[in-house]
Structures
1.
Amino acid sequence: MTLSAPPREPTRTDRLLAAIGGLVAAYVSLAVADLVAARVRPEAAPVTAVGGAVVDRTPAVVKEWAIRVFGESDKTVLQLGILLLLGLLAAGIGLLALRHRAAGSAAVGAFGLLGALAAVTRPDSDSALDAVPSLVGAAAGAILLYVLTGRLLAPRPGAATVDRRGFLIVAASAGLAATGAAALGRAVGSPVEENATASREALRLPRPASPAPPVPAGAQLRVPGISPFLTPNRDFYRVDTALVVPKVDAGRWSLRLHGIGVREERVLTLPELTARRAVERDITLACVSNEVGGPYVGNARWLGVPLADLLREAGVRPPSEGGPADQLVARSVDGMTIGTPVEDVMDGRDALLAFGMNGEPLPFTHGFPVRMIVPGLYGYVSACKWIASIELTTFDAYDAYWVPRGWAARAPVKTQSRIDTPRPFARPAAGTVMIAGVAWAQHRGIARVEVRIDEGPWRDARLAAEDSSDTWRQWTYPWTADPGRYTLTVRATDGTGTTQPEQRTGTMPDGAQGWHSVVVTVT
């Protein structure tokens, strides 16, 4: 009786190639999935879907840390982190496949199921087709891994050699094919995105019935380094949870208005909305994640329709007039919910459904085709981008997205001031040094800004002309500086006579406060 030889023990080279095989299979799987997602829906791509699920489940303190450390690159860092973790798991699956060929391919399939589950359970998913990119990608990766692993196994029991050359040829061919597929997907693009881009290019903004007054001549100070009075669209801050910016076809967009106190549910298309009386206003927006002296604040000229008019036409009354709803919940196309006090929307301030920004249709990153703007409130309780519906409800009945995550349900903007120039640790020359910056207290206005050098007395800064109480205000202070190291501090007083408190607090639960200061060395 002839005994078969024991299975050949994999060498170190075999294990290395197996790990590489797992990585190649994962790369092909993601490339194929992304190619399919371009035809189905870009947000259904596995990394995007899983990343969105991770964002939703990340504790608020971790999100704040990510924004503080990585700024507007936090989403890129998250996606790179997911890819790094996938790479490590893929290498491990490749090693598993070397021992248990079928189990390795099954593991790839399991990750495909995970991506599919994440895609179809996202708040913005409305079709089982969102599972297709992950499933097709996983099938491609599982088959490739099975083929690659076969090249590393001996052709017959007891054989001394394996087909490493064949492994490298298949792996390289698959990698090149995947790269080509990814390039093709980018070149061809997504029909969803193409239609959205075409609809934005075709949109002609209406002439405002109530145009914004010209910016006062003295509102923009000629000081190098100071923030411009109107923030260019490309420089306007972006803080949201969308890993992929929603690109909405304006021709298919509609806004649903419903809820308690609404006499009759309404659905408006973009042409119907833009045909209404449009107003244009300069309004400063601020993010609640903005730390003292932080960059997440900007001022723009917005074009839109008054939200209060639309609500009153639908029969909505604010609580002060006996209305049953005290919260307006705006829902985005990506599932985000923003809760806003009805009283604030209807108290006479310029709360808008905006479709224009600085003279052009809203950029996709800032909410095209329509977003909400409510002066005086932080963005997380007022500035819903890519808005799709408005529901009238109560704060007792519903918690919007950020509230269960530790943020306050109501959040008026706190009075803030910032030194733009000189920058921290700057080394200006002795003589006259212009200290300058911006201050904001939307819907209350800025009445006074003061500057202090080290622990000296507070000195009044010169305020630029005020555009409106809803915009920030520039300020300057000419400082006669001698050589040495100094701490420069600023504080502002709003239109109600309230001065910023000295003690710094963090951003949670309803916005940071405290005096901004910078350290400079005069040479």
2.
Amino acid sequence: MPDYFEQVAAFHNLVLVGPRGLGKTTVMKALTASGLTHLHQRDDLKSILRDIDFGYVPIYIPAESIWRGTAQSISGALSEDYERDHILNGLFVDHCLHQLVSSFEDALVDTDQGDSQVLQPWSVSLTDIEEKDICNQCSVFWGLQRAQNSFVGLKLALLQRSNQYRSAITSLPNRSELELVMKYQKYDFLIALKGFFDIVGSHCADLRWSVCFDEMEIAPKRVLAQLYENLRSFDQRAVLKFSLFPYIDFYSLEQRMAASESGPTDGQDFHTVILANKFANPDYSLAKRLIKNECDLAGIQIDTFINYLNSSSSIHRGTRRFTENGFERDFVAIHAMAVQAGDKSYVDYMKRNGINRAGDLQTLKGNNKRAQVIRKPAPIAEIRSYYLVKGGGKSHIDSRRTSAKGFGYYHGFDQMLDLTEGNPRAIKYYVTDLLRSLARGENSAVAQNRAISRNVDRFRALVSAHTYSGDIVSSQLQSPLQLVDTLGDFLSEVLLASDFQPEPPLSYEVKGLNPHLSEALILAVNSGALVVDQTTGRKQLIFDLEGCRFRASHRLAPFYKLPTITGQPRVLSGMPRTRRSYIDQPDLLSWAKDDG
């Protein structure tokens, strides 16, 4: 259970923010009636759950994946805005009402079973007569053709009307069915929802409701904007909870300006929980608990697993010391390694600061001086010495190691935590692979190279497939994956250039962004490929890229040969120039060309 679960479960308006794979859907499904029932059956959670108020009926409304394709089909089939809006709204409302009824059924307790059914705080008890009356009234209020007598009948009637909306599009150019559904009343889902509260409330007094909207990014933008605005004052009986990507593209600048005085305010009208990994100084406590659980399931001690990863023969000998709290860099060993690797620019930098040999580092005094000469340059010198080879004082970008098997810099338990960004799905992938290798007695370095290669490719595929955009993919001027590759390669080229920089740029700050890059940058942020600093400048929800600071996700660091630290920012206005060409690059780029 994540530490933020109590805040998410509390009876207040909420926005869960984060890219895919961070557990937004898992948490929201845990807050359904079935989910809460199962949670309360776990002995290890009883002491935590005892202090949380679950005195509300949980409603879970997931997005429907076909909305995106349906919206594009409707846009191409209908030329009139009012027709498109009417069909999309009808599909959205009927889907939400169907999920509303399903969730309410999930919370029902059958009174005919007597005392065998335990009435939980989120449970509702109805007789058959009460169910019939509720369904009759909802049928009328929601404009269904016939009055329904059961919740099953209500759901079937909603599905039938949804099919009519879809059929109106598929039957074109014959407009007879379109003209039929255009006569249907255009419903506001929130009004339909309040009506349901009133109808049920006439039989069950004093009910409270929690309505969770999951993955709403692909819902109609107009509806999303309306739902968001209602976070301020929807209904005293209910709270609204959303899971959203970091960048909000459904609330325009004009809407925000118009709602500056009456719109919802973070911290006042709703609470925000950021699930994305922190831009800097991440907290991996949940990640470590997840890994321990995986080890327990595999029958392997967590310490055995940690030692297996830290025993990789590809980790620089002597440059890292492993402790119970992680690893510490040995600055003397790093200096010696950089000299051995022939990093002449680094050696000259150290000489200018009075360091002629490794032993001089131990005599250096003063926190500022040690930071300037040791703490800041050491991580940069370490990764340069790993990827730069001796070249007679001529180290440059082409001297990088390009083998997909050369990921030793990223080996070890703590580095694996960084490579997952604390993402539960990424942790599952990495740990499952590596536990199997440990059980087989496979060499640690070989196992980690394969796991890193496989999981970086998997994440790149996810970024490439992330097409939640208001525009059709083919109309995008820039591929999100190509944009991320360009940004990552540029930072890598600066990092590994012939001129050593003790604090090279390892992140970007958006200022005066070229509009042509905006769409791809938004998609990259929402896919998790780019991690935004959401702790400064009230960037919990990102409405505008201007002023945002971000870095490439550490999940992609091995692909670009970047360290898993934040570094200094570089201003991003237009596409940086790199030495690489992306003209012939496919969406999913394989590993280095020389690997065969």
3.
Amino acid sequence: MLDQIPILSLIVFTPLLGVLALLFVPRHNGRLIQWIGIGTTFLPLLLSAWLYASFDIAKAGDQFAETLRWIHVSLNTELLERLGSVETYHVQFDYALAADGLSLPLVFLTALVASMAALASVTIKKRFKTYFILFLLLETGMLGVFLARDLFLFFLFFEITLVPMFFLIGIYGLYEREKAANKFLVYNGLGSAFMLIAFLILISTAGMTVEGSSFVYSGAYDTILKNMQDAASFANLGPELGQSFPNPFFLTEGNRTLVFFLLLIAFGIKLPIFPFHTWMLRVHTEAPPPIVMIHSGVLLKMGAYGLLKFGVFLFPSEAKQWAVLIAVLGVVNILYGAALAFVQKEFKLILAYSSVSHMGIVLLATAAMNGIGVQGAVFQMVSHGLISALMFLLVGSLYERTSSTQLSAMGGFAKSMPFMSGMLLIAGMASLGLPGLSGFVSELLAFLSLFDAMPILTAVGCLGIILAAVYVLRGVLAITFGPPKEASLGYKDARWIEAVPMIALTAFILLIGIYPAVLSEPLQTTIGGIEQWLAGADANGGG
């Protein structure tokens, strides 16, 4: 049934229905604006849940694919004829969407976190209409990133996320919101520049196909992946076309390494990898809590997804060659983030450095270059997305009551706010990897995947788990069971609109921890083929 319905397009663009509706609502009608904005986010959530339930775990590769010719440009054939060329050249970008085992859980994560963050947005006190329009545009961009199957379309969706995020931070953040927004834009804009250069090289080389006497340069991901897997297609174009086609740029080892590092830097800034992490700290501390939920829960995962999808899957030989470097960067992230989280006195900064540390685990799993590593990376992305979203949801609720996130200003909340304190304890236990919660499964897979190849680096990285227990318990216990402040006895526990997203996020953290097959089964449809490609990369000479 779903084959006849463009469900992926519906998932991506239904938030724009909310944008359209909000344009006709007077800006002074704040309550109606809030409910339209919140209600619209549940449309892609319901559709993505339907998609998840309908995904065929017995079928490998992309599913629910949608392809439409979008941009087709023919180069100046008259000029080429004057130059004596008998071939024609075309540039083609398609509107291409598809879901696979890698993108499916991230799409659902995006829709879930966006809906929960929309509920948390009732704390926003100004310019409701602008806020929810930007919020829904941001959601469209995030969903499109995980479903796009054309490099140009992926880049377009990726850039769409930057503009609303910049304004959401700059308008609705705290005291240094403008500095945080500018730093966000500069760093992410720089990463986008590296990504654009890498994509242009990919399109002009691995994106080339031959149709008769025509050369077609395409951004289609499947075409690029196939040509990277069968590099001989560049050299075996036939005697006539082969002579007129320039020397295949991509067959040189140095150029493949160049593009791999361009992608590593581009997505490493988004992840973020040390030392490109400073912009993220400002966003975590200055942006409004609902936006930080999206930033930590989804936007950072776009970097990890891009690194896997474009860096590792397209360049397995280069990724294997530099796996030790990736693992070292992962260990640095883990230990650096954990060590600095331990000494922070503000809870938001503890969580910010914790994100740096936990994203280092994604790098460790990526460096393993095997199926378990891919599973570990995806589990960690989804798990951290849920946990960090829950944490910042709680931070927002606490800040609304205390006007501070300093540990010294909070304490003894277990008595006055037992429900929120319980949620905070669950989130903390999940973050440090308690069995039965999602954090345990993701960390187990990540470290297990790398232990055989790099036991020393893996053992050093495991120190991050110990440090996580220290800084998480330090912060959480100080808030819940620390010395009560005089004002804390008067604070009210969570309202229903706060409790609903807290319960929902906690439920999925428990679900993955107790029944990880809900996430691993769809992943198997993608891992099978990719694992063969990764394993055979060295034997075939790579790329």
4.
Amino acid sequence: MRRPRRLSSQLLRVQLAILVATVLLGFGLALVSTQRRLDDDYQQRALAVARSVAATPEIAAAVARGDRSGVVQRRAEAVRRATGTTFVVVTDDRGIRLAHPDPRRLGQRVSTDPSGALRGDTVLAVERGTLGRSARAKVPLRAGGRIVGEVSVGIHERALHRELRAIAPALALYLSGALVVGALASALLARRLKRQTFGLELDELAGLLQEHEAILHGIREGVIVVDPRGRLRLITAEATRLTGLSGDDRGRTVEEAVPAGPLADLLAGRTGGQDELLVHGDRVVVANRMAVRRDDRDLGAVVTLRDRTELDALVRELDSVRGLADAMRAQAHEFSGRLHALAGLLDLGHADEARAFIAEVARTDVGLRRDITARVGDPRVAALLAAKSAVAAERGVRLTVDPATDVPDALVDPREVLTVLGNLLDNAIDAAADAPPADGEPTVVACLTAEADGLLLWVRDTGAGVPAGDRGAVFAAGWSTKAAEGRGVGLSLVRQLVARRGGDVAVEDPEDGRGGALFTVWLPGAVRAAPDAPTPPTRSDA
């Protein structure tokens, strides 16, 4: 099969064809323009000769007398030979020739119309007469203030052609130089185009474009392309959903389009880009940034974004279910042990001790649930506290509710409170279980207090605490003391949620000096205030 011509070769051929056609057209137009200029120049030369002849008193007087002695002919021929013109014709006021290069035409009427000059006008024209085509000038011949004839002087077109042929080679040489320069420029342009398109042909470029569109719209990941100057060049629909960027941001720099934060740092290349965990708004995103280079040229970077919000929520829910299952398994084991103890007491006939044992177990199990339901009006928050207490008990941690807890059943969005409280409790239980105190039982204390339309929430643990140098980084996405992949999201979500509410979150050391960490959260607008409720007390620190 015949191999198709390369794109650069096709472009070079087309450019050369256009260049040659342009040069030829320019050459033709230059010749036409030069010929017109030469016509004008020869007409002006003929006019100067005609005026000098018409200003000769001897010729004017002879024409006025109707002289046929040949004076006019001799003087006119002398002027013609001296000036190198083709002809000098003198006529009377009827257009009859009195002077002509061909003596045989004397006494005949001129072949061209003499009326313009006989009216007193100066006529410049390129006309064809008895001697051929020539540039000529006609002026009136006056004697005693009246027009007695005309003087017509012409230069044959052969003289024009001789001068035009003398000019043409230089003009052709100039245009040939321009053609060579244009050809070199076209070759350089074709070479540059080949380099910029990486040697791809038109069909290959079309195929790449189709594949590009199919891939971008066929994958679930969001894609953002950044050029070497830091400008956004491509933002897919999924990337718009995950980041809030839109098509209007294309062409803008990262600093102009993206607020300062982890996403802006990733797009600008200021942070690493391998499975970076970002929290943007209420979305958990896994981001990858890959620099693109070809032939040692920096082509920018491609950033892919994968939504992990639903997966992360499922993982947290699975952890909760697993924790509850473990707690139920432990409680079943404990309950089985209690039943064996109770059966032993009954078999030994200790009925009173058996009744006392049952009463003690009932008080222990019901106490926490009664304390939670008495202080927490929202059933979902109460259920979360009860479930987390079972998980904590399974891990050897005692979860208690601070006596100051007072949550009405009037939360604006209980899911926000569940997210904040659940994450703080999970971290606190992990910290207390991993680093039990030397002089007591691992403990987690939670407190929720409604103040006006806001909710003050704090969780304290007896774990290892948070070093002062890490208290700013503890809320960053991906930061965790655990080695497991995918951790370090919970506290980042808490910060994002609280910031969206206009609240604040902080971590500090407990005031009693017993170690551990105290996380405090303020959520304004989280509680629906009663219409006739009295003004609540001012918020105080936990």
